[in-house]
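Re: that chain you flagged

S.,

Sorry for the slow reply, it's been a week of failed gels. I finally had a moment to sit down with the sequence you sent. For the record, here it is as I used it:
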Amino acid sequence: MISLSAVAPAPTAAHVHSIPELGTPEFDALPSAQAVSPMDARALSKTLFLRMAKLEEGTHEYQYVRNTLVELNLALVRFAAARFRTRSEPMEDIVQVGTIGLIKAIDRFDPEREVEFPTFAMPTILGEIKRFFRDTSWAVHVPRRLQELRLQLARAGDELAQRLDRAPSVAELAAHLELTEEEVCEGLTASNAYSVSSLDAQPSEEDTEGSFADRVGVIDPGMEGIENLESLKPVMAQLSERERTILSLRFVADMTQSQIGAELGVSQMHVSRLLSRALGKLRAHLLVEE
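Prediction finished late last night. Pasting the structure tokens below so you have them in one place:
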């Protein structure tokens, strides 16, 4: 959990153009950051960013102004965190992670740029929250029972590995946790769903053969031909022997109609008629099956 340093009272919009110096009675008398309205907080933040840019990083006054900016802009974090209220993680954790993004945005913000701080900060806050979910969430939905079993197996595995000086077997894990071997195998399988590897990742640092994506097989174009052939087999059986021969010479041997005519001793025109008739029969049978 983030623990921000206690901050002194923050100035209000009435003092935007004339903020008392840090440590003076006038400054200490100003109300807290939580009492500042959103509009006043935005205007006040501009002034504080300009002041922080002139301070030496690491000084007490610099840290004070920085923490005050965090307090003034926590509403941005709560607004961003509300987008994820349907997630299973506690809202307090999401707000804490978002606050880290807010702090990063404050450190990176340049008040000389013509951009409002909320516009600049929101992508950083949301990015930090999304990174939190990416690093801590399961890649696919897994029942709560298996999520808890994964944690038990991880702790038991570490404990037994130290005791045995080797990786424990499924039987040893089952005996240690008083579970069946089937339950242990189920939990170990569920662990694979906790994280996924990018297809662009290298299998190992020493591997020079490319990423996982480079090794993924592609669909063999010949598979479609096999499927079509299997579909045509019962229909082909209903054709005459001559029709089957002509289809084989045309589409398997890739012969022209003239070559087929010379092979069978008939004219090219006759081959064309026989071929059209055979294809018509195939088309008719396939349409009936559909």
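What I noticed first: The chain is about 60% helix and 0% strand.

Talk soon,
D.
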